[in-house]
Amino acid sequence: MREHVIREGSSVASTIAVGRSMTSELVRRAAARGYERVALLCQPRTRDLAERYSKAFAAEGFASSGYAVPDGEEAKQMSVVEEVYRHLNEHRFTRSDAIIGVGGGSLTDVAGFIAGTYLRGIDAMYVPTTLLGAVDAAIGGKTGVNVDGKNLVGLFKHPSQVVIDVNTLDALPEDRRRDGAAEALKTGFISDMSIVKDYEAFGIDVDLESIVNRSVAVKVDVVNDDFREEGRRAILNYGHTVGHGIESATGRTHGESVAIGVVAAGSASEAVLGFRGAPRQVDVLGRVGLPVSAPDADADEVRSFMSLDKKRGPEGLRMVLLRAFGQPEVVAVDDATVRAALASIGVE
Ligand SMILES: NC(=O)c1ccc[n+]([C@@H]2O[C@H](COP(=O)([O-])OP(=O)(O)OC[C@H]3O[C@@H](n4cnc5c(N)ncnc54)[C@H](O)[C@@H]3O)[C@@H](O)[C@H]2O)c1
Ligand SMILES: [Zn+2]
């Protein structure tokens, strides 16, 4: 087992444990925090896992309650949030208790939002069950609910503990491992080429324990530098400006959209900063079976969703571009650059 630590000032904000067969570790960590009771929040595909955890908590004398929210983005709704508040209130959950989110990124996003607002904030723990959740959504303290736009409402709140069980990730269907590979590769492109080399060598069958540890290490390092996204944290959005546009316009998964967004960002990086790694990015994304273009997407629609991006600055669209692998920069881009980047992914 390996631990990663997110700090706020000199105190520990969040501890991330990566290992295998982590059920007793989860219970041990909750007990060490002194929680009296835990509310296990799950999504339909993680119900069995949450039940297993519930039994393990009961065996250690904890009271627990379970609540299943709808799958995927359907969970990230204010109506769902309100239902869970009522459930917590009916069961008299207090600030000595904690919410444990067991599921993919949509589940941990909403679990964190609920924990951050119920009684003005109680503790949360996450057990991310998708690769995307493990390397991205569960790390770094951003929570979100969809109101009109995706993640329009949310708050920064670190879970006290994140417990990643690699056995769960190994058992994921291939499309979920592929989605997560897009985010893991993104951390590779911006900071750790060993991640990229592993995917080049082994494709989707990489050793996930090692990938998760390295990818989490990149994210933790960036978040420790800049928790509230005023500067360096923006580099984690590599591939996301165009990616969010593709995701909203076409309904592709987040991981697929990010893969396509990375290709567009690579092309813009080549044009603006002389980046030479664009073909290598396309090759490795293709190697794991991720899409590298979206010819079906409507260019006007993608552009209008891109302009809604929260990372837009006063002087127009800002994109994360690479000067070289491991050298990301946030650059204001003009309309011609955006059009050319979109053309590189077949969106014109
Ligand atoms: N907070 C952040 O910093 C951050 C970062 C990236 C993404 N996100 C959010 O994360 C979400 C995307 O993450 P995701 O793809 O993990 O979302 P998700 O929770 O919707 O999971 C994707 C699918 O995988 C299924 N699933 C979950 N665990 C499973 C398991 N063990 N076995 C089989 N299937 C399983 C889910 O039921 C769902 O259908 C988006 O809502 C995005 O906005 C947040
Ligand atoms: Zn992402």
Structural notes for this entry:
The chain has 348 residues and is α/β, with parallel strands linked by helices. The chain folds into 2 domains: 2-172, Rossmann fold (3-Layer(aba) Sandwich); 175-343, Dehydroquinate synthase-like, alpha domain (Up-down Bundle). It has 14 helices and 11 strands. It has helices at residues 23-33, 47-59, 78-90, 105-117, 131-137, 166-170, 174-191, 193-202, 208-225, 240-250, 254-273, 278-287, 299-307, 335-343, and strands at residues 2-8, 11-19, 37-42, 63-68, 98-103, 123-128, 145-147, 149-153, 161-165, 318-324, 327-332. The strands form 3 sheets. A 7-stranded mixed sheet has the order 1-2-9-6-5-3-4, with helices on both faces. A hairpin with a 2-residue loop joins strand 10 and strand 11. Helix 11 (254-273) crosses helix 14 (335-343). The longest helix has 20 residues, at 254-273. The model has no long low-confidence stretch (mean pLDDT 95). Residues 136, 183, 240, 254, 258 line the site of zinc ion.
Topology:
Blueprint: E1 2-8, E2 11-19, H1 23-33, E3 37-42, H2 47-59, E4 63-68, H3 78-90, E5 98-103, H4 105-117, E6 123-128, H5 131-137, E7 145-147, E8 149-153, E9 161-165, H6 166-170, H7 174-191, H8 193-202, H9 208-225, H10 240-250, H11 254-273, H12 278-287, H13 299-307, E10 318-324, E11 327-332, H14 335-343
Helix pairs in contact: 1-2, 4-5, 5-7, 5-9, 7-8, 7-9, 7-11, 10-11, 10-13, 11-12, 11-14
The chain binds nicotinamide-adenine-dinucleotide (NAD) and zinc ion (ZN).
Zinc ion (ZN) binds at residues 136, 183, 240, 254, 258.
